[in-house]
Amino acid sequence: MSYDTQPKASHFIDGAYVEDTSGTPIPVIYPATGKQIATVYAATPAIVDQALAAAHRAQKAWGAMTGTERGRILRRAADMMRERNHDLSVLETFDTGKPYQETIAVDATSGADALEYFGGLAGSLTGEHIQLGEDWVYTRREPLGVCVGIGAWNYPTQIACWKGAPALACGNAMVFKPSEMTPLCALKVAEILHEAGLPAGIYNVIQGFGEVGASLVTDPRVAKVSLTGSVPTGKKVYSAAAAQMKHVTMELGGKSPLLIFDDADLENAVGGAILGNFYSSGQVCSNGTRVFVQKGIKEAFLKRLSERLSTAVIGDPMDEATNFGPMVSEKQMKIVLDYIEKGENEGARRVTGGKRLERDGFYLQPTVFADVTDDMTIAREEIFGPVMAVLDFTTEDEAITRANATEFGLSAGVFTRDLSRAHRVIAALEAGSCFINSYNDAPVEAPFGGTKMSGVGRENSKAAINHYSELKSVYVRMGDVEAPF
Ligand code: NDP
């Protein structure tokens, strides 16, 4: 199989590919082999300025179009993404190392879902009329202007669309910066949007490291910043945005709890724990990495978990049978290995996995630790890799208290056959995106985002509209103005 993974140019600005090789070269590494498959160049200040100027210039006319016209373009782009799903999935696999079996099902398709959903909503965005006796107020839902999207490396196509689709539906322009580790996919999203009829300048992609992101955030032409990334980066970006009172959406990290009660359906609970820890080799922000298992079901749970993990097909991500791929980078693999070592040193019991695979690329075994206690590093810090921590609990109250004893609040899940308990426990858990007898579903129709240090705002669903538009209220007086003097 040979694919041309080198993009036409590093950036996509004002409706066209743009190259500027004077920026720092960014090697693109295929995680399954460790080999370089492309080179892009970080945006120079001139490229940053070019992208922001194009977005700023184009936005007013885009915002003045009807929502139906804007939506038609987004929905056309959604259809094109679905038609090109195979090629986009192959590229996503090269960019991230995630198995093609995953990317063909999840990445371009969920990006297309976002374009279709927000394309559909665009025509029905309205303000309201508020009658006040003879006088009245009306509200106008207006675009914010130029929005900046900054992405993490785990879902490059999806993140580019989850930010772009609502922004564009509301009449904004966007400058998107992917993670420098996965720079390829967002360029394809830009290309497709323009083929679908998007006016030049409305969706731009520029490459770069954190400093490029930082220069976008502080530019006065930018009205809003939406970041998907870690909590430390979120703090920096949020405070930089605050200096100019910009709008923000922060989709940050987590250490989410998954509570499995004695009465749970064992196979479903094990399946949920696998999905919530090992999909995308564990590189998912909402993962339920603290798996609290009630003592009565613990041994049966660990036994079935180990059995099912032993059937994971680890290998070439392009092979359709492979369902567990490498880590995104050598750096991330080393971070995870370091956590595994800490788990062992702090006394957790390794049930399975724990090693790097002896082959090219950045492969780790799916790893499970049991007898984990709340104070251990692997129970407190986000690992962002295939490492599950299993903690025991006895009572519901105890599990809730311990589950909430974290600075994070992205997700939470519960497995139980007791209907009342399921809803009671989920209501008590401090998290934004929750699951009952399931884990990690993220349909575009549902709000997605975190509480506490895991974030601010929501992506997807109608809720995202509020984060990409603002209301102007207009008071209309029908009679005379009464002034005191
Ligand atoms: P980082 O926080 O390291 O980076 C996120 C993005 O921010 C990258 O594009 C990065 O650029 C950029 N960046 C870094 N510093 C700055 C800065 N000072 N100003 C502006 N931009 C900056 O996250 P990772 O890419 O390592 O992704 C993993 C993290 O993302 C995990 O914590 C994970 O939980 C979280 N995540 C959250 C999701 C959610 O929806 N809640 C979804 C997916 C991931 P560069 O990479 O070039 O340094």
UniProtKB/TrEMBL annotation:
Keywords: Metal-binding, NAD, NADP, Oxidation, Oxidoreductase, Potassium
Modification Cysteine sulfenic acid (-SOH) occurs at: C285
InterPro entries xref list: Ald_DH/histidinol_DH, Ald_DH_C, Ald_DH_CS_CYS, Ald_DH_CS_GLU, Ald_DH_N, Aldehyde_DH_dom, BADH
Transmembrane segments: none
EC number: 1.2.1.8
Keyword NAD: yes
Cofactor binding note of this UniProt entry: Binds 2 potassium ions per subunit.
GO function terms (MF aspect): betaine-aldehyde dehydrogenase (NAD+) activity; metal ion binding
Active site: K163, E251, C285, E459
GO biological process: glycine betaine biosynthetic process from choline
Residue positions binding K(+) 2: K452, G455
Residues of the Aldehyde dehydrogenase domain: 17-474
Annotated catalysed reactions: betaine aldehyde + NAD(+) + H2O = glycine betaine + NADH + 2 H(+)
UniProt-listed NCBIfam families: BADH, PRK13252.1
PANTHER family assigned to the protein according to its UniProt record, in alphabetical order: ALDEHYDE DEHYDROGENASE-RELATED
Subunit structure: Dimer of dimers.
Family statement: Belongs to the aldehyde dehydrogenase family.
Name the UniProt record assigns to this protein: Betaine aldehyde dehydrogenase
Gene: betB
